[in-house]
Amino acid sequence: MRRVQILGVGIHNCDEAGAVQVVEAFLREEPARLHHVCTVNPEFVMEARDNSAFRQLLNRVDLATPDGVGIIAAGKLLRKPFKGRATGVALVDRLAEISARDGYSLFLLGAAPGVAGEAAQVLEGRYPGVKITGTYSGSPRHEDWPDILERLEVAQPSILLVAYGAPRQDLWIDEHRADLPASIRVAMGVGGVFDYLAGRAPLAPRLVRRVGLEWLYRLVTQPWRWRRILRVFVFGALVLRQALFGKAKR
What we know:
Helix content: 40-55%
Number of helices: 12
Strand content: 15-25%
Order of helices and strands: EEHEHHEHHEHEHEHEHHHH
Structural class: alpha/beta
Radius of gyration: 18 Å
Number of strands: 8
């Protein structure tokens, strides 16, 4: 799948349906191996500009999907339009649907204590038959790794969803991928998805998401996020410079 280069980060040109097809192929692949999936939004790209380890990781993961209207707009501005969006919220829903249909199991790791369990209950109500073999908050700290590994070895999930926030969640997956149980075929960082599912954080209404105004909804409902939202506007300015003058300087 072709990647679109935005400010030094290559993002696969896919929509939600295409991303799901790729993930299903990852799950069926034999011999089995772990595939790392990232849902890339403008904040990821901005972080990658100053964090070389994160930038290199994003450019080598098995699937980097376009998450966020800013990424879609950037593709259009660079005359390399994406087929659509593939957000973390949507992909978690689809993975739960696949689990209920085909029996692949999920483990929900991260977020505040109790949140992953609440998110699991929501998914179980939404997708009867979904197989969730464990939930745990833990942390990306080195001292928490043995406990996390023990829980994963017992649960033997097919899919690992990690909610430690970017870039920690994806760097954590990459750091431990060689030691994770062989049962895990897909690992994906999911940011605040568990909080959304559990009702701990407000998710923008469907119409607002459809027109790409999630950033405005977050600014109104979570005004303390203004610094993060400001980075999106800086991202837009840098993409414009890339479109006008070629490769953007750091």
